[in-house]
UniProtKB/TrEMBL annotation:
Belongs to the TRAFAC class OBG-HflX-like GTPase superfamily. HflX GTPase family. The keyword Magnesium applies. Monomer. Associates with the 50S ribosomal subunit. PANTHER family: GTP-BINDING PROTEIN 6-RELATED, GTP-BINDING PROTEIN HFLX. PROSITE patterns: G_HFLX. It comes from Geopseudomonas guangdongensis. Its cofactor is Mg(2+). Gene3D superfamilies: 6.10.250.2860, GTPase HflX, N-terminal domain, P-loop containing nucleotide triphosphate hydrolases. Transmembrane segments: none annotated. This is GTPase HflX. It is found in: Cytoplasm. One of its GO terms (cellular component) is cytoplasm.
Amino acid sequence: MFFERPGGGERALLIHLEGQAPEAREDPEEFLELARSAGAEVVAFVNVPRHQPTARFLIGSGKVDEIRERVHADGIELVIFNHTLTPSQERNLEKAFECRVLDRTGLILDIFAQRARTHEGKLQVELAQLEHMSTRLIRGWTHLERQKGGIGLRGPGETQLETDRRLLRVRIRQIKQRLEKVRSQRELARRGRKRAEVPVVSLVGYTNAGKSTLFNALTEADVYAANQLFATLDPTLRRLDFDDVGPVILADTVGFIRHLPHKLVEAFRATLEESSNADLLLHVIDAHEPERDLQIEQVYSVLKEIGADELPTLEVYNKLDLLPGVAPQIQRDDSGRPVRVWLSAREGGGLDLLRQALSELLGDDLFCGTLRLPQRLGRMRAQFFALGAVQQEAHDEEGATLLTVRLPRVELNRLASREGWQPDEFLAQHTLQ
């Protein structure tokens, strides 16, 4: 009798192991939210006290028998574990339960598959799924391990299983080539922004911390935002304009999660590079979350994995509307530099403080001074006004224009090089009062 993998379904039984080592422990509430985000109808939630997982089933054989009876009695179509299962464990459990078994990685992959909207996002999800499937291919195809037989079909050749593995490798290679092309296109766009010296601010944080809500509040965009895990998969970039800084690119990225599968980090590397190449990270934190310290630790773990842990970071404590008695505020370090902003993206309280903090962090190299522009540089005067950089204007006895300006030094240098002069040549001896 050959093993055929059961089909999936929506009626699910969730299994969570208690007593795990701290580094391997998972959050049962988060597990429940993941299952609901995937669209599962949670029929039962089973906590299994287990300090030492077994090699065959992960859980004990007595508990397997107990759960099998529950599966048959309640018409369960899917059993989901809040832990990583080996291919052999999944196969043994599916044989025992006679229904589909999914582990935590498979569940997250399914959510990603539902959320991906762009061509790039779908490619990244497919790559992660195929690489996950490649280690589990034997489970559903054990009846195809034999070589083709019968008259006219005997002899050396590859088995059906080998054929499927080869086709899988070909598809994985094709997707990686396409994603490499996407990566090179992103790199070109980043170089263009760097040449224009437009700073990039990337939103990062734990899933469902409110990144997309904050993104929409700052940019007046209409990015999909919902109270569910992994609402955003595909990166979205928008331009913001700050009085003291000029144009800024704001990027909304995929959320992180505890024990984010390594395959997903690899597959989404092209997307996550938006964070690793940013000038500033906005680390959005759910201020109302009881385990926010663990979530912060997990976010920094993923940032380290993608090489973004050394970037300048501003922490944004969101969902202040759920914390009575806490007012929007900016917290600073000993040097007066903003390190933390408390706000409510949904209610809008504290957004002005965030803009102020961003202006301070991104506008470190501001030029504030008075320029003396001869009459022949009248066009330059108009450009300063167009940028909104002029704070005061006057004229001296020779008819030259005295402009007190405030703008990023890179913007000043760009204007000066375009006209073929150096800013220091036209610095006025005295600033306007």
